[in-house]
Design a protein that fits this description.
Strand order of the largest sheet: 25-24-23-22-28-27-26
Number of strands: 42
Strand content: 5-15%
Number of helices: 66
Structural class: alpha+beta
Low-confidence stretches: 97-110, 538-548, 694-711, 769-810, 1021-1104, 1128-1133, 1205-1223, 1248-1273, 1285-1364, 1582-1587, 1666-1671, 1734-1801
Mean pLDDT: 75
Length: 1909
Amino acid sequence: MARLADYFVVVGYDLEKRVEGEGQGRILQRFPEKDWEDSPFPQGVELFCQPSGWQLVPDQLPPSFFVAVLTDINSDRHYCACFTFWEGLDNPQLQKAEASEADEADEVLSVVQPAKIFAPKSLVLVSQLDYTEVFRNCLGLIYTVHVDGLSAPLETVVGNLLTCVIPIAGGSQRTITLGAGDRQVIQTPINESLPVSGSSVAQLFRQLGIANVLCLFCAALTEHKILFLSSSYQRLTDACRALLAIMFPLKYSFTYIPILPGKLLEVLSTPTPFIIGVNSFFRSETQELLDVIIADLDGGTVTIPECVHISLLPEPLLQQTQTALSMVLDPELEVADHAFPPQSTQPSALKIQDKEIRAVFLWLFARLFQGYRWCLHIIRIHPEPVIRFHKAAFLGQRALSEDDFLTKVLDGMAFAGFVSERGPPYRATDLFDDLVANQVERIRQEEACPHKVMNHAKEVAEQLFKNENPYPAVAMHKIQRPSESSQNNAQNQAPFPLLDDVAVQLFIDHAAAKLKTAPPAVKPELKSMVPSGPPLGDIVDRNGNVMANSARRLEVVRNCITYIFENKMLEAKKLMPAVLRALKGRAARVCLTQELNQHVLQNRAVLDDQQFDYIVRMMNCTLQDCSHMDEHGIAAALLPLVTAFCRKLGAGVTQFAYSCVQEHMVWTNMQFWEAMFYSDVQNHIRHLYLETEDGGQHNNLEQHVASSNRREIGALELASEQSRLWPTLSKEMQMERVQKEESTVFSQAIHYANRMSYLLLPLDTSKNRLLRSSGLGDVESVSNSYVTNSIAGSMAESYDTESGFEDAESSDVANSVVRFINRFVDKVCNESGVTNEHLKALHAMIPDIVQMHIETLEAVHRESKRLPPIQKPKLLRPTLLPGEELVMEGMRVHLIPDGREEATGLMGGPPLLPAEGAIFLTTYRLIFKGTPTDPLVGEQTVTRSFPVASLTKEKRISVSLTMDQFVQEGLQLRSCTFQLMKIAFDEEVASDLAEVFRKHLHKLRYPQHVQGTFAFTVGQSGKMVVEHKTKDKNQSLKTLSKNLVKSAKRTIGRQYVTKKKYSPPTWENRSSFQSELDEDEISVSEEVDQSSLTLSSTIRSSDRQTMSNVVERACCRDYQRLGLGTLSNSLTRSKNEPFRISTANRMYTVCRSYPGLLIVPQSIPDSTINRICRCYRQNRFPVVCWRNSRTKAVLLRSAGLHAKGVVGFFKSPNAPTAVPSQADSTSLEQEKYLHAIIISMPSYSENSGRNTLSGFTSTHMNTSDSSDKLRQPKIGALMKQVMGAKEDAPGTFSRGALGQRAKVISLSQPKVSGKARNPPRGKWGSIRGSGRLSAYNPDVGTRLAGKESPQPNGGPSEAMFLRQQKAYLYIIGDKAQLKGGKQDSFQQWEVVPIEVCDVRQVKNSFKKLMKACVPSSSTSDPNMSFLRCLEESEWMALLHRVLQVSVLVVELLDTGSSVMVSLEDGWDVTTQVVSLVQLLSDPYYRTFDGFRLLVEKEWLSFGHRFSHRGAQTLGSQSSGFTPIFLQFLDCVHQIHLQFPMEFEFSQYYLKFLAYHYVSNRFRTFLLDSDYERIELGVLYEEKGERKNPQVCKSVWDYIDRLNKKTPVFYNYMFSPEDDEVLRPYTFISNLKVWDFYTEETLSEGPSYDWELRGRQERAAEETAEKPDTSGPKSQRHIVWPCYDNLTKVVPDAITKLLQDLQSLEAELGQATDKWKDTWDKIKTTQRTETKLESKPSFSSSLLMSSNLSHQRRSQGVYLQESGVGSSINLALDCEASATSTPVPGRPSTSTLYSQFQSSESENRSFEGILFKRGALLKPWKPRWFVLDKTKHQLRYYESRQDKECKGVIDLAEVESVTAGTPAMGAPKNIDEKAFFDLKTTKRVYNFCAQDSLNAQLWMDSVQSCLSDA
């Protein structure tokens, strides 16, 4: 029972105290005057009566009523019902004015004051119950009695009010009367725990809407600050009440002030969460609150500040809740679109709607908290239950550990209250308990169906409504209201009288006395056991949230563990990677803990090192994926295991697993330890009671549990039973139980103090690596995370602290651990009620426990250091070239797979990558060598390397390896030999070492001067890296002899000397310089003398030495071969030749980048040359470089003209009649020069008209096959394609694939344009082949051109290419430069403007090509596929462009016109085109000598800037790598593919050059011109004496030497036709990606450094020579892509035969012939045979020079490089193969040879047939026996032909050989003496030979083998 009202107070306006216009209220009377003991009088009532402040008003206001809520210090709420009315007063201002208080009066009187004013007065009723309507009625009645002057005295009414007592709950009905003729009925709610809301919740939703209220609801639950604004006080109270009602069953425990007085507004800036209501009057003052959510009830808005983030309900709950709420509030929404909406869809009445909304929220909480009781830990049952909630487990089982909202709610105060209130297992239950336990099943089935949810909500709503209104048919209230009249003349009414306090007090005392005598009305509480609902595990499974984990994975985990404990380590090792992958899944981790549990006996499991290591590794892997919360209980399950598994380290020293799994966050999380502790305590307490009770005592409990499927009794059920029995127990029994429980908790606390010290103290206690998160000190990991501390042994030394600080440090670790454990113990012991004595004892114990543990650990640490460290793979040393030296020793790294998937096993085959090994930096290469981490291929070695000079990009990356948790730093290195190395440094590599590595790499990649490159430093002593010292006082200078310095200066030439002094290279002065001088290997010191004379301006022109050197240069030989002039010693020229060799440039004064000797027209004097050269860029004027021997047309090369030259040259009308004054003089000279070239051509004199270009077919091709005729297009069409088949209107650009397109200067006549519309047939490429260009429409072109160049007479425009006269000289020029040039129709030369790709384009294209061929990471994006990237790189389009121009030039030269290629600076594209033209036109250049000559002449002599384009030095680093030469080689490769019989060299030769032109191994491709080479003394040193024969300085010498040894560069299909001009197809569709870009050989690295190959094989053979007892060897060999070298493993037939020949010769001891001699012999014999044969065999003609042109072309398809074993059939026996033709379907010959393994030629000392007696009862059988001296064994085979060895008798085991006797079943008719026995240590073999002689031979042979051994 409770009082309806505690206090009645009258508060009035205080006239005495007015502060600056603000009034104050004061309590006029209060009843009772004494405070009640159970509820003290709340302070500050007067503030809350007038929340907006006490003010006098001029007009009387109607009475108002609201309820304010005050919270007292015990957090009990007092409801203050305030009834306020206004009473009239005489204006105090006027009286004051008369009293003239001066200063104030002046202001006030300026406003006219009314005579009568009104002051507020409030009647306040203070209660602990919330009955708003009853209070409104009671206070209204008192007011009515006063106003209407009713007969009842006010004292009686107030007395009755204060003495009225009603029950709190229970659903009773009380009628009360206050003695003024009134009657009211009060209904109490049935269950007091459910809040009473009236209709306030529905009202709140109406005011704010669904989304806003849900937002506020989540904000309140996650502890944000919420402020309501409204101009109505009662609405503020209702809204706050509603918000609390929907939060049920959680109770709001922060500041709650539904109506906050204006004077207390500063409360709003409190830091704690709150729910507060404020009158809208103060809106402006709430604006600056930054973290408060403001809900405006009147405007219906909720404002959330930017800095506040509200976590919303998890989906799908949020959506389902919103749907349910909208169905309650707006049922019409669903049927709004129906054609026939139902009649009654009105929402329920407000009161009902209110309950339905609350029902939806209850349903929501039931879903959020379902199964919460399974996560309660009961730690104490007596005297009070103590309960804790295991949050992590709850979130983990719900799979919501990531969910923000639920996590915050569970951490909140409200939920803590919820657990302490609803945790106890034996108590009264309510609606929510029923919902969350018994209706989970129903809720889950219905959650997806909104209508079922609604029905459920309505059922719950009915219960809620019934709870508030148990008796719906209530008798009518009867309450008087003030009459109309009294309200009207209220102005004159008397003020509220003072009541007689004595009278009221009497009433109160009387009632109190009555209560004392009355019997206590005790209604017994119905307590029962709280139901728990279904356990959580099932819930999650049915939701399907459990992580799918196939049984296969669990199987793998189980098998692996079984293998480990059965000691099958190899099996376990193979499964390990799969297990570590599987352990990412939760089920597998749970499975691991269960499996390991089975191997623990009596809390102990002793393992050996290897087992221990694996188990620890698995534990670490399991823990690594657990969050620090451990929501799945994995760490909890492992906790007992880490103290169980151990290994013996030494006498009495045992290491437990815990010392190796300390690295994980979870151990430092206090909440984890608490949860673990509580769950253990709960188990112990449960056992405590299960033991004490005998069967009879918990019978009824048993029955209760029996219904829920006979499982073991849970702790909560036990606790509930115990709580029920508690009152029946005697005091002693109660005490005994309390003590037992307390000591259980205490013993667990000791146990946990031990456990925590195990996991928190590091193995090496000198390190303080404690506890990252708890701030207990820094963490420093000592051992590898997954490997046990046997490794730490190897590392710990380096970390050792300085001896002085050791003690301090270790104690520091101890202290921090002690502090952590103390904190833990304090918390759990206080919560679980451990006595103070026990707590003190614990605190005393903990430091001892820790200290003791530290001592045991020291022993363990000491012993673990002695363990042999775990074997990491041994670092393999790479084989180095002669002269190559290591700059840095190998650093252990992991090679990570990149985007090429062949090596990773994704494309099939074993995963070779990732591999573990080391990276070595040498002076020449960067080498990785190691073994794959996958145990299945662990015996292979993986090598990847590239020359340092080819490095193009290096960037840092961070890599996480699969095995380890940590991310390691790594590097990604990309090379232009199409190699990518992604390496991650092992943790043993210090990071500064990695930095040093990068610096060295950079220094080697970009030496300051070209002399720092490997080609120069090779073979010099010491680790030489060039460093230019700027200081003069260099140590090493003093030791140098002076002449060395002088000659060095001279060598370097003028330009370098001026820049800086060159001091010879030192490697950090490491090696003494003297020794280098003795060896005299420094290139500077020696070869200088001859070349230093040739240089610089001081040298005289008559210097013979220079001349003879220049003449020796290869170009001269070539010029003589071509008949372009000879150079006799006396330098006299024969006058009748059209060209001469000019020596104008012998001093490199005319053009630095040209060779010393140049071919110019006979008639041009050297003086003219000096003048002409200025018109051209870089002074590269036109010179002749090749002449067609048939048509005598010449090919010239030059750079483009300078801009002014262009204008002067082309714009002046240079007709023959031109007046010299019109033209610039150089321009005339230029013209004269060109004219001289034209005159030199024989065809100049025959101006016959038959050579019109339009109908032209090449004359010499008329004899060729008809199919070729079709392919000869018209040159006009070809021109068109090259120049771009589309007109550009002046000033516009069409966007083509290759930038701006060329403008066609001429147009064809209409009939030809009709032909041109058909795309050219056959092998002619077109620029349009690049795919993206707009189609060509010749007619449009005609029109455009008609506009552009109209004829003066208005006739049809004359076509330039198709006019009657052909030009004698075509100048291929750059379109961009030739803009605006006017062509004159009478000149004999013509300009063909084309577009060239500039260097930038090549550079960018190459970058993209590298990324396409060697991507850095694999991608599934279809836009990043290989072919797409290849296309986007536009590399193929660039090749197409170069080839196309070259083919055009070839065609022009072949028709007898000369061509001058005059593009860019004349050293990039020009060089490419000119070289390709010569290669296509002249078969000589397709031989070894010719190709070498071509490269030396066109690329080296004519100054292609190799160093600059290859970015070989520091200076050219910024310009980047531009592979112009590689592009040329690729073009050659394309031609080679189309004409495989025309080249003497193989594709491998091209790859070899492509690799070495960037490798800097040879000096050939260094420097930018002959001038620079001479200057450095490089050019002629090759003729000088060579000190060090092993170091080849020229790539050509190297190739020659190699070519003598092996046919690797030779093309066996070489069978040239005389003088054939090649015209390859150039369409992009005809071009192939060069396999140089994509292939890789991981077994040996790039195969282009041939010495390495030999060395590796030798090393392999040495290892193979150990005796091999493993029985018969299989003849099969597995060939892996990207691992094996195909050409080596599967050589083509000819190579194979040559190899076999060589090995046979070796075996027979003959002197081996050179392969070339052998090959030539075969060829000649074959030629003669062919001639003898009547019909020549096809294959022989294929191999030898045939003249069946079409067959050669068509067969070219299969006759490519020996990649797959070519299907050539060597016609060594012609008859057999006369009919056979190579068919694609035939098995290739390689398969026939694969069984002969050249490396394992068998050594057969003696062989023959013997009969061997089988085992018991088996017959004698003939076998083929082989006696092998080398392998020291006797092998036998089924027959002579058999390759499979059937058995082996090791001669080492043979004891004796004796003559035998014939035994049973022996072969008949054989001499007795033919039998002999062989006795071995194991058994006796009986043999029988064919006759006695044979037997004797066998016995002797075996005997001699034995005696040899």
